[in-house]
Amino acid sequence: MAAPLLENLSESLGSPEPAVRLILSILIGYPCALVYRRFLFYQPATVIHLFHTFSGLALAAFNFDFAFIDMHHFPQFTFRLSALSLRSMRPCPIPDAEAHGKDGNNCPEQLYLSNVARLYLLAGYYYTATEEYDIKWTMPHCVLTLKLVGLSFDYYDGGKEPSQLSAEQRGSALPSVPSLLEVCGFSYFYGGFLVGPQFTLRSYQKLVAGELTDCPGKPPNSIIPAIKRFSLGFLCLVIYAIFSPYYSDSYYLTDEYEAQPFWYRCVFILLWAKVILYKYVSCWVIAEGVCILSGLGYNGIVDGKPQWDACANMKVWVFETTPLFGGTIASFNINTNAWAARHVFKRLKFLGNKTLSHVTTLLFLTIWHGLHSGYILCFSMEFFIITVERQALALVRDSPLLTKLANSALYPLIYVVQQFIHWLFMGYPLVPFCLFTYDKWLKMDRMNFLSFFLICLTSVANGNKANKHKPWIETEYQGIVMENDNTVLLNPPLFALDKDAPLHYAGEICGFRVHNGPSGSGSVQFEAVVLDRSTGEGLVRSKEPLDCESQREHSFTIQAYDCGEGPDGVNSKKSHKATVHVRVNDVNEFSPVFVERRYEASVPEGRLFDRIVRVEALDADCSPQYSQICFYDIITPNVPFAIDNDGNIKNTEPLDSKRQRVHTFWVTAFDCGKNRAQADAQVVVTVKPSCKPGWIGWTKRVEYTPGSGSIPLFPSLHLETCEETVWNIQATVELQTGHIGKGCDRDSYSDRSVRRLCGAVRGEVDLLPPPSPAANWTSALPTLPSSDSSLVFSFNGSNHVAVVPDSVVSVLSGDHFTLQLWMRRGGANIQPVTSQTRGNRKEEETIVCSTVKNDDSFSHYSLSVHGCRLSLFYWPDVSAARPVKFLWKLEQVCDSEWHHLSLSVQFPSVTLYVDGVTFDPALIHDNGAIPNPAPHQRMFIGACWAEPEEKQKEILNNTIPEGKDSVKYVGGYHGLLSGVTVRPGSVEPHSVVECLYACREGLDFGDLETLGSGMKVHVNPSQSVLVLEGDDIESFNRAVQQVTYRNSLRFATPGVRPLKLTTSLRCFNEESCLSLKQLEGYLVVLQPDAPQISLSGVGPHLARPAPEFEGPRGVPLFPELRIVCSLSHAVNTAAQGMEGGALMSDAVAHTLDGCEVQPLGEELNPEREELLVDMDVVRERGLEIINTTAYIAITGAESISVYEDVLRSVRYRLAKGSARFERRFRLSCSEMNGRYTSNELTLEVNFLHSLDSLYHPSHLLASQQQFLHPSHHAGELSGHTLPNPHRNSVVPGAATVIIMVCVGFLVVMVILGVFRIRSIHRRGEGARGGAKEGSSQWDDSALTIIVNPMESYESRMGISADTEGEGEEDEEVAESPDDASDDQRIIIKKEGRDGNARRY
Question: Is-catalytic flag, 369?
Fold first, then answer.
């Protein structure tokens, strides 16, 4: 609907429709400004930016349809967004920045934004330009181009120091990058979007912030000034609309114009130029009214009146009245000219030529207007006209006659002539500007004559100048002036040359001017005079004598100027500025002065010192020659001291305090000018009697008896400083326990037992169990001996890998688990594998690598070390989720020491404990998309696997050929591992982890309450390093004496612990402060009292009728077992044959960790016999049991009473019909992971069979009584366990007949029993007599405990080599199978010649 209305309006006005749309768009700015003032003035900046942006885009769409959005604004938006994203790039220098000495903000952004805007504009010109004046999208885009280029320069200036910017640049500089929305509002502001004016982003920011107002906090009172500008612009528009049809551009191309006389064409050009410019004047003045109405035109208050000319693009009065071409340019398109001067002309200052800068600026404006040749001719002629005008004005100003004529009464006539010439010269450049193409403006041949005429005028003007050349001087001078003098000697000498010589005045040098140098001073102190005007010789001198001590060097600039064109110096020319550096030469006017008049020092006797005390003198002269002290001298004769050139005094012979306690002498100083010190200095040296500083009372060997608690390490130690004043003392006590077990003395129970004692939740799975038939995946791994009896596995980084079977891995599913292990990188006697390195970069070493099956998916994790980094690579779901890598940077990983690691995973939470201390991951990152591990359940210890793609496909398709399941190991671990366990389902509490690592020995401090003031004590977590710090010697000595060693283990590991004491002293006199050497000693933990574990209450024989063994529950083997643990202080070997054995102390409460019941001779036949244990009791007590045909092993740290209950429940059962007569069993127990073992209790079980397969209690009673040699004395039955249910019964008094019958039958049974017993004893004696043929029993219930399993029993207990049962175990005890679920290692003492221990 709007299109027909606009067509009718344009027809009625006689103007093209685009021009009508443009004028209406400019006028629409007034209601937009009113809306802003009324509704948006107090709104947030974002709302105002959006209003300005969308209103400007709406005007663009109204003028150029929506093709404007597609062809112009979307690319504008794109490159503006890209340019702003460059704000984080580093600055780069451009020539203007170099001129200022500092780089600006983000030069790449500036170049990008400027070049893209200009290139996009030129492309628009190239593709859309015609031979007519078209109003299209390139018109507002050229305005936008200047805005964006100016924005980039303003942001560049914001990166400089304010002192490096001009006032104009400081007003527009942007210290930070504006937002994209802010730039859009600035670019599309309705008041300047289509035709201008130009304004800075800083001005726009002030507008949005409500600062551009004459009424703070309220909309500006700018309605009346806006109406005035609108009225003036509307008047210009009316003038143009009336007269433009009579003065059209096309008339120049007609034959009628060519036929007109020359004067007519000149007048036509003059009037046409005047009318054609009203087209631009009207648009700019109306647009200025919009800016004033919105407040953007506010320019402060001058003389109490608000100024509204900040966006003025026209000075209409000057434009109408000026007779000068320069005046018209200064009043026409003011903002664009100012923009070109600020951002182009002034920034080309580095070229050093104003004319070249002027030409370059005009060339920029030419290209900015378009690609037509008419623009080039227009601005070229403008340059010539401006040049001619300036030179003509100079001629008038320099000529007294012309100056007088210009100021005479004829000036009105001259003004009319000037106006005619002015507008004639104004019209000629406008003709090619409006005709565009050369084929049109070339038709005006007389224009060539005019150009030639202008060039001639320029040449003539240049040729008539009398003073053509500037004086010339050197660019830099070096000067010297003596102190207290004022004449400066310059090199080279000061001469100014002028090429106008020998002309009078113009070729003569009239003077020199001195300007401030870089430091801001110089011109005040110096002056330059001319010695000869014709030769230009000059002299520089100071106004007053100079003082070198006040300022040694001066810098300033000097400039020469000639005498001009006459005696009054009119049009004189100045040379460039030359830099002058003046150095003031020093005079030796000061003598040395000592810093102190008296120097004192104290030294111990009997020693030679390199320096006792240092004296120092200073000289106030400024030069090194006179200010330096060349040497010192001792003027007192015959003293045992010498002084060097630096003032250091030393003794030449050892001093003796008895001969002379105090030495006093005098020293003097000389500077390099041989001036002696004004006053000599006195030196006093006091000789102290001999004293040896250091620690006194150090004991190199300290003994510790296990079980004695804490003992002081240094009970009589104290520090002697020999009267040296010390203000800080620091002593570090280091106890080295790395060779004891895994870093220190800990509980010697097995890892599983320690976990149970620490309260850990059960259910852990041992990944490195002792090798056994049931746990054979560790059999190929080499093991190393350990002082704490634990099993240590060695990995060499290549082929030492433990592959955990699927039966064990299958129970480790889930994403909640705790992985614990002991590790030591490197290990013993393991050489690094060269194949693991690739160049100089080592691969990761994998400790554990596992893929487990969850409910419906597979998860994968691997724990690796790389250098000093520990990493956990976790893949929650190998088919879907992305892997996550947790990294820790730990020194403990690479220090080749034992460390305990506990990794608790509750994905996505992971907690790492190293030696009981929590460590957070240094880095957690998503590993990105990498090849998924194969969904195949497996677990490796010591390496990970790598499979080719074919193998992974076979795993996915479950098509692995038999015998083809070979895996390549990668990332092999190089070091030692022990106690590797995984507990699925939950994580360990921190208290349990601390308990597992806790050292039971370390350094401690006696009583913290007794510490003196200023004392500090620090102990590291492992209690291996204790640091004392203080400032008082007495308090420090008392504190050192309270340093103690504690070991809470009852049976501490014996051995040597190296001990070091390092001391650091800080004195008030650092030069003579004491330096104490490190003290080394050792702590000896003595052999602990051996615990005696005694098994008793079970006789060597147990006889029962065979049917009792064949019952469903069998017969208990140890029903009255008693276990007693006591400490042996002295073993009486002579009492071995006595009842009770060796001398022992009172029984103590103790903890066992394993017992074993073993059949002697052949193993149990599972089809005929078995050993039964009450499993409910075992599970209730939390013990572990291994029940095989070779032995029963019960393990776990528990009290003696618990083990008594469990062992009393052990029963032996026979299958019915088993024809056995006897079976022997051996029982032994141990504690501290097999470190201490009990006596071996041997039990012989006898099976009593009836003659006629009938069983009667009376028969059993008779046979047992005959076998036992009935007696009521317990001493004769010692060692036998024969419970008889009829032992306490009384034979009732019955009839004599019944008694006689029974007695007869009883006599028969007794005879048979005696015969049976004799045969049994014969077999027993035969077995004892042939030690090599069979095994005998050991019935010494008072067996002494063996402390060291490597020692022979004979050497410890004094038993001879032919002791009964010596070789009993050689043939009967064999290596027994093991169970994979137990990580215990129980060492049972063997009594034979080859007493090898069994591991569980």
Answer: yes
